Amino acid sequence: MTAIPEDFTGYIAVVKRDCDTCRLIEPALQSAAASREIRVYSQDDPAFPAAIEGVIDERALELSYRLNIEIVPTLIQVESGEEQARLVGWQREAWRRLTDLPELGAGLPEFSPGCGSKSLEPGMPEKLAFRFGDTVLQARRVEVASQQDEHELMFERGWSDGLPLVPPTEERVLNMLSGTTRSPTEIIGIIPPDKAPCTIEKVAINAVMAGCKPEYLPVVLAAVEAACLDEFCMHGVLATTYFAAPIVIVNGPVAAQIGMNWSHNALGQGNRANSTIGRALQLVIRNVGGGRPGGVDRSTLGQPGKVGFCFAERERDSFWESLAVERGFSPEQSTVTLFAGGGVLPIGDQKSRRPESLTRSLALSLKSVYHGKIYGNTDALLVISPENMRVFRQAGWSKARFREALDEALTVDGRDVQAGAGGIAEGMPPRLAEKRLTKFRPDGLLIVHAGGGAGMWSAVITGWGRSGAHGSVPVTVAIKS
Amino acid sequence: MPALLDPTSELLPAQREALPRPPSLSDKRVALLDISKPRGDVFLDHLEAKLGDIGVDARRYSKPTFTRVAPVDLKHKIASECDIVIEALAD
Fold first, then answer.
1. CATH class entry, domain A10-120
2. Structural domain for B70, as ranges
Protein backbone atom coordinates (compact mmCIF):
# COMPACT_ATOMS: atom_id res chain seq x y z
CA MET A 1 0.00 0.00 0.00
CA THR A 2 1.41 3.38 -0.96
CA ALA A 3 1.05 6.44 1.18
CA ILE A 4 1.05 8.84 -1.79
CA PRO A 5 -2.30 9.76 -3.40
CA GLU A 6 -2.50 8.59 -7.04
CA ASP A 7 -3.29 12.06 -8.31
CA PHE A 8 -0.39 13.80 -6.59
CA THR A 9 2.42 15.25 -8.67
CA GLY A 10 5.08 17.30 -6.96
CA TYR A 11 7.48 16.83 -4.07
CA ILE A 12 7.35 15.30 -0.62
CA ALA A 13 9.76 16.49 2.05
CA VAL A 14 10.07 14.65 5.35
CA VAL A 15 11.69 16.61 8.19
CA LYS A 16 11.85 16.90 11.96
CA ARG A 17 12.59 19.86 14.20
CA ASP A 18 15.12 17.84 16.18
CA CYS A 19 17.54 17.84 13.25
CA ASP A 20 20.12 20.55 12.61
CA THR A 21 20.02 20.00 8.84
CA CYS A 22 16.24 20.24 8.70
CA ARG A 23 16.34 23.55 10.56
CA LEU A 24 19.21 24.70 8.34
CA ILE A 25 17.27 24.14 5.11
CA GLU A 26 14.05 25.81 6.27
CA PRO A 27 14.67 28.82 3.93
CA ALA A 28 15.24 26.47 0.99
CA LEU A 29 11.99 24.64 1.70
CA GLN A 30 10.21 27.98 1.97
CA SER A 31 11.50 29.21 -1.37
CA ALA A 32 10.79 25.87 -3.07
CA ALA A 33 7.23 25.91 -1.73
CA ALA A 34 6.69 29.30 -3.37
CA SER A 35 6.92 27.87 -6.88
CA ARG A 36 6.65 24.09 -6.54
CA GLU A 37 3.92 21.75 -5.31
CA ILE A 38 5.61 20.51 -2.16
CA ARG A 39 4.15 18.67 0.81
CA VAL A 40 6.21 18.94 3.97
CA TYR A 41 5.76 16.20 6.59
CA SER A 42 7.06 16.94 10.08
CA GLN A 43 7.87 13.92 12.23
CA ASP A 44 8.04 15.61 15.61
CA ASP A 45 6.37 19.02 15.50
CA PRO A 46 3.60 20.10 13.11
CA ALA A 47 4.53 23.74 13.85
CA PHE A 48 7.88 23.16 12.15
CA PRO A 49 8.99 24.52 9.73
CA ALA A 50 7.12 27.65 10.83
CA ALA A 51 7.78 29.33 7.46
CA ILE A 52 5.79 26.68 5.58
CA GLU A 53 2.04 26.75 5.45
CA GLY A 54 0.09 23.52 5.76
CA VAL A 55 2.82 21.35 7.25
CA ILE A 56 1.45 17.82 7.57
CA ASP A 57 1.52 16.27 11.01
CA GLU A 58 3.62 13.11 10.59
CA ARG A 59 3.97 12.24 14.26
CA ALA A 60 2.17 8.94 13.65
CA LEU A 61 4.99 8.16 11.18
CA GLU A 62 2.73 6.29 8.79
CA LEU A 63 4.12 7.91 5.64
CA SER A 64 7.66 7.49 6.95
CA TYR A 65 7.00 3.80 7.52
CA ARG A 66 5.33 3.23 4.16
CA LEU A 67 7.98 5.13 2.20
CA ASN A 68 10.88 3.59 4.15
CA ILE A 69 12.24 6.99 5.20
CA GLU A 70 15.65 6.43 6.80
CA ILE A 71 17.07 9.96 6.96
CA VAL A 72 15.59 13.41 7.41
CA PRO A 73 15.43 15.56 5.46
CA THR A 74 14.33 13.35 2.58
CA LEU A 75 13.05 14.90 -0.63
CA ILE A 76 11.01 12.73 -2.97
CA GLN A 77 9.89 13.66 -6.46
CA VAL A 78 6.47 12.23 -7.26
CA GLU A 79 4.55 11.95 -10.51
CA SER A 80 0.94 10.76 -10.47
CA GLY A 81 1.50 9.08 -7.11
CA GLU A 82 4.67 7.30 -8.20
CA GLU A 83 8.07 8.01 -6.71
CA GLN A 84 10.53 9.20 -9.37
CA ALA A 85 13.61 10.14 -7.38
CA ARG A 86 14.76 10.57 -3.79
CA LEU A 87 17.40 12.65 -2.03
CA VAL A 88 18.50 12.18 1.58
CA GLY A 89 20.17 14.87 3.63
CA TRP A 90 20.95 18.29 2.15
CA GLN A 91 22.88 18.15 -1.15
CA ARG A 92 22.57 21.62 -2.65
CA GLU A 93 23.27 20.80 -6.31
CA ALA A 94 21.20 17.64 -6.29
CA TRP A 95 18.25 19.48 -4.68
CA ARG A 96 18.57 22.20 -7.32
CA ARG A 97 18.52 19.64 -10.14
CA LEU A 98 15.62 17.65 -8.70
CA THR A 99 13.49 20.76 -8.13
CA ASP A 100 14.74 22.49 -11.28
CA LEU A 101 15.40 25.58 -9.16
CA PRO A 102 18.96 26.71 -9.98
CA GLU A 103 19.10 29.26 -7.16
CA LEU A 104 17.70 27.00 -4.42
CA GLY A 105 19.56 27.19 -1.13
CA ALA A 106 21.75 30.10 -2.05
CA GLY A 107 23.80 30.88 1.02
CA LEU A 108 23.47 27.37 2.41
CA PRO A 109 26.43 24.98 2.57
CA GLU A 110 26.88 22.53 -0.28
CA PHE A 111 26.28 19.54 1.89
CA SER A 112 24.90 18.69 5.28
CA PRO A 113 24.08 15.13 6.29
CA GLY A 114 20.69 14.58 7.80
CA CYS A 115 19.60 12.78 10.93
CA GLY A 116 17.99 9.40 11.48
CA SER A 117 14.28 9.20 10.79
CA LYS A 118 12.10 8.90 13.88
CA SER A 119 10.54 5.87 12.24
CA LEU A 120 13.83 4.03 12.82
CA GLU A 121 14.34 4.86 16.48
CA PRO A 122 14.88 1.80 18.67
CA GLY A 123 11.71 -0.23 19.00
CA MET A 124 9.82 1.99 16.53
CA PRO A 125 10.02 -0.23 13.42
CA GLU A 126 8.22 -2.99 15.33
CA LYS A 127 5.57 -0.60 16.61
CA LEU A 128 5.00 0.78 13.11
CA ALA A 129 4.92 -2.70 11.57
CA PHE A 130 2.23 -3.57 14.09
CA ARG A 131 0.26 -0.40 13.33
CA PHE A 132 0.65 -0.12 9.58
CA GLY A 133 2.17 -3.40 8.36
CA ASP A 134 0.48 -5.99 6.21
CA THR A 135 1.20 -9.01 8.36
CA VAL A 136 -2.03 -10.31 9.83
CA LEU A 137 -1.59 -12.54 12.82
CA GLN A 138 -4.01 -15.43 12.90
CA ALA A 139 -3.81 -16.50 16.53
CA ARG A 140 -6.78 -16.10 18.81
CA ARG A 141 -6.63 -13.02 21.03
CA VAL A 142 -6.90 -13.52 24.76
CA GLU A 143 -8.16 -10.36 26.41
CA VAL A 144 -6.55 -9.23 29.62
CA ALA A 145 -9.13 -7.66 31.93
CA SER A 146 -8.29 -4.19 33.23
CA GLN A 147 -7.58 -5.37 36.78
CA GLN A 148 -5.91 -8.59 35.72
CA ASP A 149 -2.16 -9.16 35.87
CA GLU A 150 -1.05 -10.51 32.50
CA HIS A 151 1.69 -12.59 34.08
CA GLU A 152 -0.74 -14.27 36.42
CA LEU A 153 -3.13 -14.83 33.50
CA MET A 154 -0.44 -16.78 31.65
CA PHE A 155 0.24 -18.98 34.67
CA GLU A 156 -3.48 -19.54 35.23
CA ARG A 157 -4.00 -20.59 31.63
CA GLY A 158 -1.29 -23.19 31.95
CA TRP A 159 1.00 -21.63 29.33
CA SER A 160 4.02 -21.63 31.65
CA ASP A 161 6.59 -24.28 32.42
CA GLY A 162 6.60 -22.89 35.96
CA LEU A 163 8.79 -19.88 35.26
CA PRO A 164 7.65 -16.36 34.29
CA LEU A 165 6.91 -15.74 30.61
CA VAL A 166 7.23 -12.68 28.40
CA PRO A 167 3.64 -11.68 27.46
CA PRO A 168 3.11 -12.46 23.75
CA THR A 169 1.62 -9.18 22.55
CA GLU A 170 1.01 -8.60 18.82
CA GLU A 171 3.90 -6.16 18.74
CA ARG A 172 6.35 -8.61 20.26
CA VAL A 173 5.20 -11.47 18.05
CA LEU A 174 5.52 -9.33 14.91
CA ASN A 175 8.98 -8.36 16.05
CA MET A 176 9.85 -12.02 16.61
CA LEU A 177 8.62 -12.86 13.11
CA SER A 178 11.09 -10.35 11.69
CA GLY A 179 13.72 -12.95 12.57
CA THR A 180 12.68 -15.16 9.67
CA THR A 181 11.78 -14.67 6.03
CA ARG A 182 9.30 -17.52 6.23
CA SER A 183 5.56 -16.88 6.12
CA PRO A 184 3.83 -16.83 9.52
CA THR A 185 1.12 -19.08 8.09
CA GLU A 186 3.53 -21.83 7.00
CA ILE A 187 2.90 -25.06 8.87
CA ILE A 188 6.23 -26.47 9.95
CA GLY A 189 5.12 -29.61 11.66
CA ILE A 190 2.53 -31.62 13.49
CA ILE A 191 3.27 -31.36 17.19
CA PRO A 192 2.75 -34.35 19.46
CA PRO A 193 0.99 -35.47 21.50
CA ASP A 194 -2.17 -33.72 20.26
CA LYS A 195 -0.93 -33.90 16.64
CA ALA A 196 -1.68 -30.21 16.32
CA PRO A 197 -0.55 -28.39 13.16
CA CYS A 198 1.99 -25.76 14.12
CA THR A 199 2.50 -22.55 12.17
CA ILE A 200 5.57 -20.34 12.22
CA GLU A 201 3.38 -17.81 14.01
CA LYS A 202 2.67 -20.24 16.88
CA VAL A 203 6.37 -20.95 17.22
CA ALA A 204 7.02 -17.20 17.29
CA ILE A 205 4.45 -16.71 20.06
CA ASN A 206 6.07 -19.39 22.19
CA ALA A 207 9.54 -18.03 21.39
CA VAL A 208 8.43 -14.62 22.67
CA MET A 209 7.17 -16.21 25.87
CA ALA A 210 10.43 -18.13 26.29
CA GLY A 211 12.40 -14.88 26.10
CA CYS A 212 14.02 -15.38 22.67
CA LYS A 213 15.35 -12.59 20.48
CA PRO A 214 14.09 -12.54 16.87
CA GLU A 215 17.52 -13.66 15.66
CA TYR A 216 17.09 -16.92 17.59
CA LEU A 217 13.86 -17.77 15.76
CA PRO A 218 15.46 -19.68 12.85
CA VAL A 219 17.20 -21.93 15.39
CA VAL A 220 13.96 -22.50 17.28
CA LEU A 221 12.17 -23.27 14.01
CA ALA A 222 14.82 -25.81 13.06
CA ALA A 223 14.53 -27.41 16.49
CA VAL A 224 10.75 -27.68 16.13
CA GLU A 225 11.13 -29.17 12.64
CA ALA A 226 13.64 -31.69 13.97
CA ALA A 227 11.35 -32.64 16.84
CA CYS A 228 8.57 -33.34 14.33
CA LEU A 229 10.65 -35.82 12.33
CA ASP A 230 9.24 -39.29 12.67
CA GLU A 231 12.56 -40.90 13.58
CA PHE A 232 13.03 -38.55 16.54
CA CYS A 233 9.79 -39.91 18.02
CA MET A 234 8.93 -36.84 20.08
CA HIS A 235 5.71 -38.42 21.28
CA GLY A 236 7.65 -41.27 22.87
CA VAL A 237 10.32 -38.95 24.26
CA LEU A 238 7.52 -37.01 25.95
CA ALA A 239 5.39 -39.93 27.07
CA THR A 240 8.12 -42.15 28.51
CA THR A 241 8.46 -42.64 32.26
CA TYR A 242 12.20 -42.14 31.62
CA PHE A 243 14.06 -38.81 31.99
CA ALA A 244 14.24 -37.98 28.29
CA ALA A 245 13.95 -34.49 26.81
CA PRO A 246 14.89 -33.05 23.43
CA ILE A 247 18.42 -31.71 23.86
CA VAL A 248 19.40 -29.13 21.25
CA ILE A 249 22.99 -29.00 20.00
CA VAL A 250 23.78 -26.09 17.69
CA ASN A 251 26.61 -26.24 15.14
CA GLY A 252 27.90 -23.80 12.56
CA PRO A 253 28.29 -20.03 12.21
CA VAL A 254 24.91 -19.21 13.76
CA ALA A 255 26.18 -20.09 17.23
CA ALA A 256 28.65 -17.19 17.24
CA GLN A 257 26.27 -14.90 15.36
CA ILE A 258 23.62 -15.09 18.05
CA GLY A 259 26.07 -15.22 20.94
CA MET A 260 25.57 -18.78 22.14
CA ASN A 261 27.72 -20.25 24.86
CA TRP A 262 29.97 -23.24 24.14
CA SER A 263 32.55 -22.32 26.75
CA HIS A 264 32.42 -22.04 30.55
CA ASN A 265 29.21 -23.51 31.95
CA ALA A 266 28.07 -24.42 28.41
CA LEU A 267 25.58 -26.95 29.76
CA GLY A 268 24.37 -24.61 32.48
CA GLN A 269 22.54 -21.35 32.98
CA GLY A 270 23.43 -17.77 32.17
CA ASN A 271 23.31 -17.40 28.38
CA ARG A 272 20.12 -16.03 26.89
CA ALA A 273 20.29 -17.93 23.59
CA ASN A 274 21.16 -21.27 25.21
CA SER A 275 18.46 -20.90 27.85
CA THR A 276 15.62 -19.60 25.74
CA ILE A 277 15.98 -21.65 22.54
CA GLY A 278 15.63 -24.93 24.40
CA ARG A 279 12.80 -23.46 26.45
CA ALA A 280 10.95 -22.27 23.36
CA LEU A 281 10.95 -25.81 21.93
CA GLN A 282 9.58 -27.17 25.19
CA LEU A 283 6.89 -24.46 25.30
CA VAL A 284 5.80 -25.38 21.75
CA ILE A 285 5.44 -28.99 22.84
CA ARG A 286 3.56 -27.90 25.94
CA ASN A 287 1.26 -25.32 24.41
CA VAL A 288 0.78 -26.35 20.79
CA GLY A 289 1.27 -30.07 21.31
CA GLY A 290 -0.52 -30.21 24.65
CA GLY A 291 2.28 -32.22 26.26
CA ARG A 292 2.25 -31.58 29.99
CA PRO A 293 3.68 -33.34 33.03
CA GLY A 294 1.13 -35.72 34.49
CA GLY A 295 -0.75 -35.67 31.17
CA VAL A 296 0.98 -37.37 28.28
CA ASP A 297 4.35 -36.47 29.85
CA ARG A 298 4.63 -39.47 32.19
CA SER A 299 8.22 -39.01 33.33
CA THR A 300 8.68 -40.61 36.75
CA LEU A 301 11.29 -38.13 37.96
CA GLY A 302 12.03 -35.78 35.05
CA GLN A 303 15.19 -33.70 35.11
CA PRO A 304 16.05 -29.97 35.11
CA GLY A 305 16.87 -30.06 31.38
CA LYS A 306 13.19 -30.53 30.62
CA VAL A 307 12.71 -26.78 31.05
CA GLY A 308 14.99 -26.51 28.04
CA PHE A 309 18.44 -27.85 27.24
CA CYS A 310 20.42 -26.23 24.45
CA PHE A 311 24.08 -25.51 23.88
CA ALA A 312 26.55 -24.98 21.05
CA GLU A 313 29.59 -27.06 20.16
CA ARG A 314 33.00 -25.45 20.73
CA GLU A 315 34.18 -25.60 17.13
CA ARG A 316 36.80 -22.86 16.86
CA ASP A 317 39.69 -24.61 18.59
CA SER A 318 38.48 -28.15 18.29
CA PHE A 319 40.93 -30.76 17.05
CA TRP A 320 38.11 -32.89 15.72
CA GLU A 321 35.41 -32.42 13.10
CA SER A 322 32.18 -31.22 14.63
CA LEU A 323 29.11 -33.29 15.33
CA ALA A 324 27.34 -31.74 12.32
CA VAL A 325 30.25 -32.47 9.98
CA GLU A 326 30.32 -36.07 11.19
CA ARG A 327 26.63 -36.19 10.35
CA GLY A 328 27.13 -35.03 6.77
CA PHE A 329 26.92 -31.24 6.92
CA SER A 330 29.58 -28.72 5.92
CA PRO A 331 31.28 -26.54 8.57
CA GLU A 332 29.69 -23.47 6.94
CA GLN A 333 26.18 -24.80 7.45
CA SER A 334 24.35 -23.99 10.64
CA THR A 335 22.48 -26.94 12.04
CA VAL A 336 20.46 -28.15 14.95
CA THR A 337 20.85 -31.68 16.25
CA LEU A 338 18.22 -33.09 18.58
CA PHE A 339 19.18 -35.79 21.01
CA ALA A 340 16.69 -37.49 23.32
CA GLY A 341 18.69 -37.12 26.50
CA GLY A 342 18.39 -37.72 30.21
CA GLY A 343 20.65 -36.03 32.70
CA VAL A 344 24.30 -35.02 32.80
CA LEU A 345 26.82 -37.45 34.29
CA PRO A 346 30.16 -35.79 35.08
CA ILE A 347 33.43 -37.65 34.43
CA GLY A 348 36.50 -36.68 36.45
CA ASP A 349 39.90 -38.04 35.49
CA GLN A 350 42.76 -35.87 36.72
CA LYS A 351 45.61 -38.26 35.95
CA SER A 352 45.28 -39.54 32.36
CA ARG A 353 47.80 -37.86 30.07
CA ARG A 354 47.80 -40.55 27.40
CA PRO A 355 44.87 -41.13 25.04
CA GLU A 356 44.73 -44.85 25.78
CA SER A 357 44.22 -44.20 29.50
CA LEU A 358 41.73 -41.38 29.00
CA THR A 359 39.71 -43.45 26.52
CA ARG A 360 39.37 -46.30 29.01
CA SER A 361 38.43 -43.78 31.70
CA LEU A 362 35.70 -42.25 29.58
CA ALA A 363 34.49 -45.73 28.64
CA LEU A 364 34.14 -46.64 32.30
CA SER A 365 31.59 -43.89 32.83
CA LEU A 366 29.90 -44.48 29.50
CA LYS A 367 29.30 -48.10 30.49
CA SER A 368 27.07 -46.91 33.33
CA VAL A 369 24.59 -45.21 30.99
CA TYR A 370 21.05 -46.45 31.71
CA HIS A 371 22.47 -49.42 33.64
CA GLY A 372 25.93 -50.92 33.82
CA LYS A 373 24.61 -54.26 32.59
CA ILE A 374 22.39 -53.06 29.76
CA TYR A 375 24.06 -52.88 26.36
CA GLY A 376 22.88 -51.65 22.99
CA ASN A 377 19.59 -49.96 23.87
CA THR A 378 20.56 -46.47 25.03
CA ASP A 379 22.43 -43.80 23.11
CA ALA A 380 24.73 -41.28 24.73
CA LEU A 381 26.17 -37.87 24.03
CA LEU A 382 29.77 -37.51 25.14
CA VAL A 383 30.88 -33.93 25.78
CA ILE A 384 34.66 -33.65 25.68
CA SER A 385 36.15 -30.63 27.45
CA PRO A 386 39.11 -28.69 26.01
CA GLU A 387 41.56 -30.06 28.60
CA ASN A 388 40.56 -33.63 27.80
CA MET A 389 40.64 -32.84 24.08
CA ARG A 390 44.24 -31.67 24.52
CA VAL A 391 45.32 -35.21 25.40
CA PHE A 392 44.04 -36.48 22.05
CA ARG A 393 45.42 -33.52 20.14
CA GLN A 394 48.91 -33.94 21.60
CA ALA A 395 48.89 -37.62 20.68
CA GLY A 396 47.56 -36.87 17.21
CA TRP A 397 44.43 -38.97 17.66
CA SER A 398 41.70 -38.22 15.13
CA LYS A 399 38.05 -38.51 16.10
CA ALA A 400 37.86 -41.75 14.10
CA ARG A 401 40.86 -43.19 15.97
CA PHE A 402 39.26 -42.23 19.28
CA ARG A 403 35.96 -43.79 18.28
CA GLU A 404 37.72 -47.03 17.33
CA ALA A 405 39.55 -47.23 20.66
CA LEU A 406 36.41 -46.25 22.56
CA ASP A 407 34.34 -48.96 20.86
CA GLU A 408 36.92 -51.51 21.90
CA ALA A 409 36.91 -50.25 25.49
CA LEU A 410 33.11 -50.41 25.48
CA THR A 411 32.93 -54.02 24.37
CA VAL A 412 32.51 -56.76 26.99
CA ASP A 413 31.81 -60.47 27.24
CA GLY A 414 28.09 -61.10 27.29
CA ARG A 415 28.37 -63.38 30.30
CA ASP A 416 29.76 -60.53 32.42
CA VAL A 417 26.62 -58.49 31.95
CA GLN A 418 23.96 -61.14 31.68
CA ALA A 419 20.92 -61.05 33.92
CA GLY A 420 21.84 -62.39 37.32
CA ALA A 421 25.60 -61.91 36.94
CA GLY A 422 27.18 -60.27 39.98
CA GLY A 423 24.08 -61.04 42.00
CA ILE A 424 22.10 -58.41 40.08
CA ALA A 425 18.86 -59.51 38.42
CA GLU A 426 19.07 -56.81 35.77
CA GLY A 427 21.17 -57.52 32.69
CA MET A 428 21.30 -58.88 29.17
CA PRO A 429 19.52 -62.10 28.11
CA PRO A 430 21.52 -65.29 28.85
CA ARG A 431 21.33 -66.24 25.15
CA LEU A 432 23.90 -63.49 24.51
CA ALA A 433 26.32 -64.86 27.12
CA GLU A 434 28.78 -66.14 24.52
CA LYS A 435 28.71 -62.94 22.42
CA ARG A 436 30.86 -59.85 22.63
CA LEU A 437 28.55 -56.92 23.34
CA THR A 438 29.22 -53.24 22.62
CA LYS A 439 27.64 -50.62 24.82
CA PHE A 440 26.20 -48.48 22.05
CA ARG A 441 24.48 -49.33 18.81
CA PRO A 442 26.27 -48.12 15.67
CA ASP A 443 25.71 -44.32 15.41
CA GLY A 444 24.41 -44.37 18.97
CA LEU A 445 27.26 -42.38 20.51
CA LEU A 446 27.43 -38.67 19.69
CA ILE A 447 30.63 -36.80 20.52
CA VAL A 448 30.95 -33.01 20.84
CA HIS A 449 33.56 -30.59 22.14
CA ALA A 450 32.38 -27.99 24.67
CA GLY A 451 33.28 -26.32 27.92
CA GLY A 452 35.64 -23.78 29.44
CA GLY A 453 39.39 -23.89 28.96
CA ALA A 454 40.25 -25.13 32.45
CA GLY A 455 39.15 -28.37 34.04
CA MET A 456 39.76 -32.02 33.30
CA TRP A 457 36.08 -32.76 33.24
CA SER A 458 34.03 -34.25 30.52
CA ALA A 459 30.42 -35.33 30.66
CA VAL A 460 28.02 -37.92 29.43
CA ILE A 461 24.49 -36.91 28.61
CA THR A 462 22.62 -40.14 28.86
CA GLY A 463 20.17 -41.08 26.14
CA TRP A 464 16.63 -42.40 26.31
CA GLY A 465 16.29 -46.08 27.25
CA ARG A 466 14.57 -46.62 23.92
CA SER A 467 17.15 -45.34 21.49
CA GLY A 468 17.37 -46.42 17.88
CA ALA A 469 14.79 -47.45 15.32
CA HIS A 470 12.41 -48.78 18.00
CA GLY A 471 12.58 -45.46 19.83
CA SER A 472 14.36 -42.20 19.15
CA VAL A 473 17.17 -41.60 16.68
CA PRO A 474 19.19 -38.35 16.91
CA VAL A 475 18.30 -36.00 14.04
CA THR A 476 20.12 -33.08 12.44
CA VAL A 477 18.50 -30.40 10.30
CA ALA A 478 19.89 -27.34 8.55
CA ILE A 479 18.81 -23.96 9.92
CA LYS A 480 16.96 -21.88 7.32
CA SER A 481 16.79 -18.11 7.40
CA MET B 1 -3.97 -3.47 28.22
CA PRO B 2 -3.25 -5.15 24.90
CA ALA B 3 -4.55 -8.60 24.15
CA LEU B 4 -2.18 -11.54 24.22
CA LEU B 5 -1.84 -14.01 21.36
CA ASP B 6 -2.89 -17.52 22.25
CA PRO B 7 0.19 -19.80 22.18
CA THR B 8 -1.85 -23.01 22.15
CA SER B 9 -3.28 -25.18 19.38
CA GLU B 10 -6.66 -23.51 20.08
CA LEU B 11 -8.31 -26.89 20.29
CA LEU B 12 -9.93 -25.76 23.54
CA PRO B 13 -12.29 -22.78 23.87
CA ALA B 14 -10.72 -19.43 24.78
CA GLN B 15 -13.04 -19.12 27.74
CA ARG B 16 -11.65 -21.05 30.66
CA GLU B 17 -14.01 -23.81 31.62
CA ALA B 18 -14.92 -24.82 35.13
CA LEU B 19 -13.38 -28.05 36.35
CA PRO B 20 -15.65 -31.05 35.78
CA ARG B 21 -18.01 -31.91 38.62
CA PRO B 22 -16.78 -34.89 40.61
CA PRO B 23 -18.74 -38.01 39.66
CA SER B 24 -19.11 -38.96 43.32
CA LEU B 25 -18.44 -37.55 46.78
CA SER B 26 -17.29 -40.85 48.20
CA ASP B 27 -13.73 -40.65 49.52
CA LYS B 28 -13.80 -36.87 49.08
CA ARG B 29 -13.52 -34.40 51.89
CA VAL B 30 -15.65 -31.30 51.44
CA ALA B 31 -14.75 -27.85 52.71
CA LEU B 32 -17.72 -25.65 53.61
CA LEU B 33 -16.48 -22.10 53.35
CA ASP B 34 -18.30 -19.29 55.04
CA ILE B 35 -17.21 -15.94 53.65
CA SER B 36 -18.68 -14.17 56.67
CA LYS B 37 -21.74 -12.77 55.04
CA PRO B 38 -24.97 -12.88 57.04
CA ARG B 39 -26.87 -16.18 56.90
CA GLY B 40 -24.10 -17.99 55.06
CA ASP B 41 -23.85 -20.13 58.18
CA VAL B 42 -27.52 -21.09 57.90
CA PHE B 43 -27.00 -22.40 54.38
CA LEU B 44 -23.81 -24.23 55.34
CA ASP B 45 -25.45 -25.73 58.48
CA HIS B 46 -28.05 -27.30 56.19
CA LEU B 47 -25.45 -28.57 53.78
CA GLU B 48 -23.29 -30.00 56.55
CA ALA B 49 -26.28 -31.92 57.91
CA LYS B 50 -27.21 -33.20 54.43
CA LEU B 51 -23.64 -34.27 53.69
CA GLY B 52 -23.42 -35.96 57.09
CA ASP B 53 -26.58 -37.91 56.29
CA ILE B 54 -24.89 -39.48 53.26
CA GLY B 55 -21.65 -40.11 55.07
CA VAL B 56 -19.54 -37.39 53.50
CA ASP B 57 -16.78 -35.86 55.61
CA ALA B 58 -17.31 -32.09 55.65
CA ARG B 59 -15.27 -29.45 57.43
CA ARG B 60 -16.13 -25.86 58.21
CA TYR B 61 -13.93 -22.91 57.34
CA SER B 62 -14.55 -19.20 57.33
CA LYS B 63 -12.96 -16.12 55.87
CA PRO B 64 -12.33 -13.27 58.34
CA THR B 65 -14.27 -10.91 56.07
CA PHE B 66 -16.11 -11.14 52.77
CA THR B 67 -14.58 -7.82 51.71
CA ARG B 68 -11.18 -9.31 51.00
CA VAL B 69 -9.88 -12.36 49.24
CA ALA B 70 -9.19 -15.35 51.44
CA PRO B 71 -5.90 -15.22 53.38
CA VAL B 72 -3.19 -17.41 51.89
CA ASP B 73 -2.96 -19.52 55.06
CA LEU B 74 -6.65 -20.33 54.85
CA LYS B 75 -6.34 -21.33 51.18
CA HIS B 76 -3.37 -23.53 51.99
CA LYS B 77 -5.22 -25.13 54.88
CA ILE B 78 -8.24 -25.94 52.72
CA ALA B 79 -6.08 -27.17 49.82
CA SER B 80 -4.15 -29.54 52.05
CA GLU B 81 -7.15 -30.85 53.97
CA CYS B 82 -9.96 -31.06 51.42
CA ASP B 83 -10.77 -32.11 47.85
CA ILE B 84 -13.82 -29.96 47.16
CA VAL B 85 -14.99 -26.54 48.33
CA ILE B 86 -18.55 -25.35 48.64
CA GLU B 87 -18.68 -21.63 49.27
CA ALA B 88 -21.65 -19.75 50.63
CA LEU B 89 -21.38 -16.59 48.57
CA ALA B 90 -24.49 -14.48 49.11
CA ASP B 91 -26.65 -13.42 51.98
1. alpha beta
2. 29-88
